[in-house]
Every structure is written in C-alpha cells, then in structure tokens.
Specification:
Blueprint (H helix, E strand, L loop, with lengths): L3 H5 L2 H9 L7 H12 L3 E5 L6 H15 L5 E6 L3 H14 L7 E4 L5 H10 L2 E5 L1 H10 L1 H7 L5 E4 L9 H17 L4 E6 L5 H8 L7 E4 L7 E10 L4 H17 L5 E5 L3 H18 L5 E4 L5 H13 L4 E5 L14 E5 L5 H8 L8 E10 L12 H16 L12 H15 L4 H9 L10 H13 L3 E3 L5 E3 L1 H7 L14 E5 L2 E6 L8 E4 L2 E9 L4 E6 L17 H12 L9 H16 L7 E5 L2 E4 L5 H12 L8 E6 L4 E5 L3 H9 L29 H12 L2 H16 L1
Parallel strand pairs: 1-6, 1-7, 2-4, 2-5, 3-4, 5-6, 8-13, 9-11, 9-12, 10-11, 12-13, 16-20
Antiparallel strand pairs: 14-15, 16-17, 18-19, 19-20, 21-22, 22-24, 23-24
Helix pairs in contact: 3-4, 7-8, 7-9, 7-16, 11-12, 15-20, 16-17, 22-25, 23-25
Amino acid sequence: MSNSAFERYAPFIQEYIYRKSWTDLREVQVEACDAIMDTNKHVIVASGTASGKTEAAFFPILTILEKNPSTSVGVMYIGPLKALINDQFERLNELLDDREVPVWPWHGDISQSTKRKALQVAQGILQITPESLEALLMRHPGDACRLFSDLRFIVIDEIHALMGEDRGLQVLCLIARLEKLTGCRPRRIGLSATLNDYRPAMAYLSAGSSVGAIAVGITSHKRTISLCVESFPVAEDEKQAEQDLQKYYEFLYDNCHTKKCLVFANSRGNVEDVIAHMKYIAKQRGERDVFYVHHGSVSASLRQEAEHALRDHAGPTVAAATLTLELGIDIGDLDSTIQVGAPYTCSSFVQRLGRSGRRTGKSQMMFLNLYEPSCKNPYEVLPWDLLRSIAIIQLYLEERWVEPFIQKKKPFSLLAHQTLSTLMTYGELSPAELARKVLLLPAFRDTVSAGEYQDLLRYMLQEEYLQRIEGGGLIVGLKGEKITNHFSFYAVFQDEETYHVMSKDGEVGTLTNCPAVDEVFVLAGRSWRVVSIDEERKIIYVARTKSNRIPAWMGTGGDIHDKIVERMKRVLQEDTVYTYLQPNAQRLLSDTRKYARENGLLNSKVLPCSENSFFICPWCGTREIRTMAKLFSCGLKQTLDIYAVASSYYYLQITSGLSLDEFLSRCRSLSMDLDDPNMVLPQDQTPKIDKYDPMVPEALLRRAFLYNQMDVPSAISILRDIEMAAWT
C-alpha cells in the first residue's frame, strides 16, 4: 500500500490496517486524512454506509493525538443511539487494543462504576449521547471541566439524523456551553451518509464557531444498485381481497425467508403485521421461523436479539424494522432490503438502500406496494405509494437528491429547556447574565429576540418554573425543580405516555394504548393475552397465546417534500418505462397515466366535485397542504365563504358558498398578514407540540406554530398559482 495517507498514520494504525489485510485505503479516508491533518477547519466526512467513515475520522485524529497527547479526554464522540455507541465501542476498542488509550461509553445503560472510573482516569475517547452530555453539564459541571479541559475533537455521528430537529439544536447548545465552561475549542467532525447539499450541513457543524467547515468524501464509494418495484392490487370484494392479500404476503415471504434480509415498514403496526404474516406462512409450510421485530416499542433486549441474529447467524435471518435500523449499527452483510409501502423521504430510502451490500458494494432493494383503489373521488383512484416509490427512486438516480433540513425558526420549547438547564449548571444568575448565556447559544442567536425572551422569563416566573431571589437573581423554581429532577428532562424529544408490557421472561416492549384484561394482541412478533394491569405503575402483565391482532400506537406518517410530489406528477406526465418496475407495477402505472390524462388531473390543479364543492391538488409538499388547510379553516374562512375542508397528504376538498369562479377570483386578490398566527389558528386554540411547550406563554406558542409548523408564504403563492392555472 503506497497511499500517502497510510504513510502519515501512526504506526499502530498501520499495523491495524495490515492485520485487517486491507490492500488500499478508500477515497474518503484519503481525503479525510488531508482535511483533518492539514487544516484547522471542522470537517464533514460524507460517504455511503459501510464506506469507512469511522476510520476516516479516527485514523488521523488518533495520529494527531499520538504525536501530541491531550491532558484530558481528547475525543468526545456524540452518537444519536445507545446501540450505535455500543457498536462503535467495540470497533474502537479493537483498533486501540494494544494502546493505552481508553474508550469510555457513557449513556443511561452504563454502570456508575464505569462512569466513576472514566472521571478518575479522564483520558482517551468518551462516547456519549446528547442526553447524557446534557445531564453531565447540568448536574456535574466540575466533572465536565475536568473530563474535557483539553478536549481536541468532537465527532458527531449520523449528523443528518440530528439536523433540523430540536435534538440537533440541543447538541449545538451543549457544545457551546461546554466550550464556555472549559475554555477549550475542539474541532468538530461530522459523519453522514445521506446528504446532498453540504452547505447547510457545514453551516450547522460550524454554528457558534469562528472556524469554518469543509466536506470530504462527497463523490466516493460508488455502489452497484439493484432495484425492483412491484404492486399488488386488492379487490373491493372481501373474499377476493383476502386472496389478494395472501398473494402479497406469500410473495414477500418467498423473497426474504432464505436470505439475510431487512424489511422496512413505515409504522410499528406495519412491522408487527408483516412479521405476524411471515411467521404464520412459515408455520403453514413447516419451515423455520427466522423472523424478528425491531422498533422503538420493542424492549432493548429483544432489539439486541434481532441485531445479533442478523450479524451473527450463519443462515437466513429476517428482521422487520421502522427507522430504528436505518442508522449505522453494524448488523453484518445483508443480501437485500425490502421496503413495504413507500418511504416518506429520499433520506430514508438512501439509508435503507445502504443497509445491504455493505461489504460487496452491491445494494439490492425491493419495493412492495399494496394498491387498494377507492372510487370516492378522482384522486383516491391514484396509486400514491407506487408514484412516491418511483419519484424517490428517480430523484436519487437522476440527482442523488435528498431533503435539505429545515431548522426551526422559533425554538421556544428548547429555549425554556436550556434556560432551566443553564440555571441548574450555575445555580443563580441575574436576568442579564442568563440572557447572555442562553440567547447567545447557536440555536437562539439569530432566531429569538430579546423581547421574546423577556416574555418567556416573565411567564416562567409567573408559573414558578423560575424564582427571583433577594437581590434580583434568578434560580430554578419549585415547578422547575420538579421537572429538572426527573431523568426525562435531559431529552428534548417528545415522550410518549407508555405502558410497559411484562411477561414472565422480562420486558417485551411498550404500548401507548392500554388494552383490557384478557384482550389479546401482537408485540415483538409474538401473541400475548393480558393477565393483569397495574395502572399506577403503568405495567401490563401478559402471557403467551395465539392471535393476529396488531396494537395501535400513537403517531403519524412523515412529511413529504414538495420536490418528491412534483416528481410524482412528472411520473404521470412522462412516458418513460422504468426498467425496475415489475409486471403488475408497470401495468398499474400505464393504466394510471391513461386515467390521469383522460380525467384532467394533470392539466388543472382544481377539479369540480359538485356545485359548491371542488378538489384542489397543487402537487406540493405536506407542509404546504397542511398550511392551506389551516388557512381555509381560519384566516380565509370568511373571505372565501368556506363551510368545510377535508385534507389528505396530496389534495384538499373544499366546500364553499361561492362558485368556483368567484372562489378563484377572490384568491387572486388575497391580501393578508403573513406574520399573524390568527391566519392559521382560531383565537382560542394554542397547540402544544414540543416537549416543553407547557413552559411557554400562549402568544409565543402561537407564533411558534406559525413559523415552525406552517409555511404561509409558500401556501399563498400556491393558491395564487392554482387560480391562474385554473383560469388559463
């Protein structure tokens, strides 16, 4: 191996590469070596799944620290999942097997003795979740100072999973608070496999820092892709529908049960449904049950069982999962992945595609869509899942496009959280000191005004989340103490109220709805009967039984970007034959194109339904559809004389006292205040969406809903475009 990067690595890393019998370094590893060792910038290491991003980052980092050791923990690795930290712990320990560089995992499942030892040694690499870092800074700022007094690097794994979320903003706040506390300025290294435009990611990574960022590995690790899409029509006749569904599940079974395979579905209920049918077919055929369930409501031990089976079993193993197996946990080399239904985002597609062929570089993915047509209106006839599958595939093949992340414009919930956390760190601060420490954090510096923060502090004082003491200083109040003293405070993502399901063998998982005693349901791919319920402790005690009833969980599908929906329309407009479509899917697409053209679905965005009712299908994203529905129900209700609004992912049905011509005419002359929450909310309604919204005054919550959940300028622009399209 004559690669210059290899020659620059520390000798123990060169020996590791020899032991692994690597014949060459990957392009991303060479680029990352130069960027990390030859510049002082923050670096995004961007490359496909299993392309060596972890080594690309850590080989040069460890080489630098070998030459110039840190006097404290030298590297902090921030991982979004405990399982990912555990996985990377094994990899780094193998790399550092004969070195005196300790690796410390630090999250809620790690023992206190391990954490005490890490504090005592205060050297090496510390792997931590955002929540555990929050707890450390808030509860033990002195320990944090000692651990990180000479911190050189912060590695943020799966950075795309954080950007655009409160959790991602929390990470930026934590880094800024840590830098303020310790006086150190570590370089930041972000790892990601699913980014398209890296400029927003570089801005995110360098937020609050005077140092810029660069991205490497963008064009590296090209892989061979094998795709196929098949659709299964389901008849309206109940008996025929049952036979159609049986064909669908048998097709799925035949394409996975002899392989190492991941089956992705968009909901926990769909995951349970798939595995229940796979187990039933295996039993009917007298074949091995090789099926596992992996989602957020399955217990950690059962999720680990599925991960170990995929990674370690020699024979066929099939696991159905939600997004819990999208991220880079090592589950070995899979033969293929199967997507049941269509993913909501290109980002999910890229992550899921990358789970197969990790070592061979040949990814295989099959899309399976059920088509259950309805004749209630012209748009319900369309096979939306098939169209979305094709659009997402084409956007990736044509442009390597994935969704840009959208940062919250008014993150007031996180603002209240960081206010309490900062006061817990320092004990007491004057209002001016508190404002300087919080408002200058990267999440709020350009989004929250001093006046908005004053309104928040007044409300938190009024509601006793904060308390003013003699001399004018602020401390955490009685209600604030109750919140901060609970371990759930460290997380900024919304918690579901859950019931823990317990069998004689331990925890099975969780449910968001409590079944009745003797009720039967499926969880973790197994059937359970409710024996008893402890309402106070929210525990459901169960025993094994037979059933096929899938429990219901709270939650909705994801948002669909407007570019995906626009591409869906192009799928109907063009005559392209997509080679990955199987016979049923090809026939269905051909029939749908003919239907859409014959019924004018592509010529106009407005279709009449009855004298005072009509459909609007603007072929735009979920956020814009949601905003238009709110505008029609609130701010534009009187102007457009609207009686009723029904909405779906893709279209609206409007009932109005106006004729269609008059309705469109009034849309043409719309004049409204785009910054007025009353346009999208009734005056007596204040949605509480984010976790700490109860600590935020109503006026700010309404503003947050307007800016975070809605896109009024785009919606108004679309409405005017709808008017013009219909008139022409």
